[in-house]
Amino acid sequence: MKKLRKFGFIAFLFIISFNFAYAREIVTFSKCVDGDTIKVLVDGEEKTVRFLAVDTPESVHPTKGVEFYGKEASDYTCTMITNAEKIELEYDENSDKEDKYDRLLAWVWVDDTLLQDELIKNGYAEVAYLYDDYKYTDILKDHQSIAEEAKIGIWNDEAREKFVAEETIDNDDSKIENEKEETINLNDMSTKEIIILIVVIVLLSIVSPIIKKSKRKIKKLLK
User: Fold this and answer.
1) Strand partners, 41
2) What pLDDT, in 10s, does the model give residues 157-172?
3) I need a surface site. Which of 67, 72, 85, 210 has the fewest CB within 10 A?
4) Which domains does the chain have, with CATH numbers?
5) Does this model's pTM top 0.90?
6) Burial class of residue 148, CB neighbours in 10 A (0-12, 13-18, 19+)
């Protein structure tokens, strides 16, 4: 009987500790990063949080630049987080607590509202990076289907095409401007610099034929 009670007590402690491990943890806002990433303070230490099970377009990526709806998603997340009176993280029992970049992987709650779900419903994110059966993914998938059907946010193909076209024009304009900056502008040069440039061009025009003749003579001698 005593052994049974002892076993029951241990089992009770295990259940309590298990539930506590995946209970919501109140954190303090530190910094906005992008649509699916924030920085928070956990016990006074700044941690990066990567939202579990969703992906928003890039807005601060070093090589990809700003993708379609990236800025809108980033602004939305930052607004939700900065205006929240309470921010909580919930860790999923079927997910690692951290990724390979040491970022916390969690469900993010703002004033008892699941932020991932709001991002999905409003077309700022898509369901992604599902490596197991996570707690709220069925809800997210249902709401994503609705957002896709309504062509909200990232699912608006017409707006996406317009964004890509404008980006292409902007990139072409930037390329032209860079080429212009690389071109020698005589108006920005002093009289002394212009004279030096002319002398260099004249010398090159004189020396070039001489070099060509010398090469021909060397080739004949080698034969």
Assistant:
1) 28, 46
2) 999 999 999 988 756 5
3) 85
4) 21-157 (2.40.50.90)
5) no
6) middle
